[in-house]
Amino acid sequence: MTSTNGSSEGNKSSNMDVSEDIRELTSSSDALRQVENGVHRLSEASRREIECLVGELMTLHKKLLSDGDRIQLGIEEYANLNRYVMQLTTNIVDSVEKLRRPRIN
Question: Which of 54, 51, 31 is nearest to 43 (CA)?
Fold first, then answer.
């Protein structure tokens, strides 16, 4: 009876071990799925954030190009205006010099 009891206790023990192993595998499998889901959510959030940042950078790039073009045009207009003012100044100086010269009759 002892050997029968011993073997039946051994079977119970091994059955409990197998059940515990299955529970551990199931819970570790669930944990693995949770980790995978967490990593997926984090990577998805990071991807969206990067896409937003890239979009903002592209918008800033376009604005910089537009501002650069506007500033270049302003500089060109200023240079043209400066040349025109210099011509007018030269004409005025020439006219004033003509007025100062004594007239010979």
Answer: 51
DSSP state for residue 101 in the 8-state scheme: S
**Alpha helix positions (H), 1-105:** 2-100
pLDDT score at 30: 77
The structure's pTM equals 0.50
C-alpha dist (Å) from residue 60 to 23, 47, 64, 66: 55, 20, 6, 10
Tokens encoding 58: 């592209």
C-alpha pair distances (Å), 88 with each of 76, 92, 99: 18, 6, 17
Side-chain half-sphere CA neighbours of 104 within 13 A: 0
d(CA 100, CA 92): 12
